[in-house]
Please model this.
Amino acid sequence: MPKVITFHYTLEDQAGELIDTSRDGEPMPFLEGVRQIVPGLEDELVKMKIGDKKKVIVAPDKGYGPHHKQLVQKVPRKEMPEGDIAVGDQFQAGNGNDMIVVTVTEVTDQEVTLDGNHPLAGKDLYFDVEITGIREATAEEVSHGHAHGTGGHHHS
Ligand code: ZN
Model:
């Protein structure tokens, strides 16, 4: 059976800005081997024991991939939905099976810049992690392809 590993993490960018953390809530569980988390982090976590702490730097090729310039486009303001549009807003764009999530990265009176990359694409990720639990996955978790339980996936 693969393992379910539970860990606390703090994620910062290269400048030391906090991007995300589990420290204000429950630690996060993931199912080993299904890429539930970015490869560069999983590769390190599976080598650790309960109680181990480590800083892990993940490059884009083992993180959220490179930043593709062709996924950035400027759209005339008048073609965007009415109302306030601010940097950081996200929209669904495209049609049918090609829907992607785009993030607003710049707004002027005339144009809105939309970026279809993952917000962390092209970035080095600075993780600070601590393993809080390791257990065998259940058959149900393996068949679902994700971890269940506190902080994990819940079914209604
Ligand atoms: Zn499930």
Q: What stands out?
A: Helices lie at 39-45, 139-144. The mean pLDDT is 92. The pocket of zinc ion is lined by residues 144, 146, 148, 153, 155 (CB under 6 Å). DSSP finds two helices and nine strands in the chain.
